[in-house]
Amino acid sequence: MILTPQELQKWIYEGKSFTMVDIRPEEHRAEFPLTNLDASVSDMNSIPESQKVLVLICQFGIVTEGIIIEQELNNAYSLLGGALAWIEFQSEKKDLSQWSRQTVLPEIGLEGQKKLLNATVVIIGMGGLGCSVVQSLISTGIGHLKIIDGDNVELSNLHRQPLFGLEDVGQPKVKVAKEKLEKLNENATIEIFLEYLDKGNGLSFIHDADVVIDATDNIQARQLIDRFSKDANIPMIYGG
């Protein structure tokens, strides 16, 4: 079973009875001490028996999930994101445990995740490529997403644009996308523009972006996006 730092904090406020067990090696406990938690120390092979609910803590929240399964600990929870997610929650009041499977990667880490949360990405085009890209972006924690497309959902779109369903046919793609993406990350800011990019509006769409993604399907739009991105000195990614 999984427990987020925010849920654990609620347990503490409510006075719930449980036992904290820190299974990290001594060097991790010394370098990353737990804030506002009273935890007993153990190793993964000698988890203490307890009549109370156990909350197990490792560095990233992955080892403890495995221990609970392997040892069939029915009364135990693993702290999602581990000690690092708890420490971050205590210092910044932000629960980043949702992204713990990517913050464990040294190429990202907690600092990288914060950059993603503060990033603005503009994506132009909500076809087959755009649908897949926005789902990945919002799931990885991009904090501000701007979506530009003037099309409505058509029946012929559904086999290759997985963000849309039969109930969406006839609706603006950007409107449907916003509604569905907000369910994946309710804290993200999603701006939508039911327009096609042209010479007159392009710079206004991308001026504050960290990255521009070209998911259009015609050479004229791609040339405009390329020119605007160069003029604004903003990195541009395209695919097709």
TrEMBL record:
Coiled coil: none annotated. GO terms for cellular component: cytoplasm. GO terms for molecular function: nucleotidyltransferase activity; thiosulfate-cyanide sulfurtransferase activity; ubiquitin-like modifier activating enzyme activity. CDD domains: ThiF_MoeB_HesA_family. Gene3D superfamilies: NAD(P)-binding Rossmann-like Domain. Residues 100-240 form the THIF-type NAD/FAD binding fold domain. Pfam families: ThiF (PF00899). This is THIF-type NAD/FAD binding fold domain-containing protein.
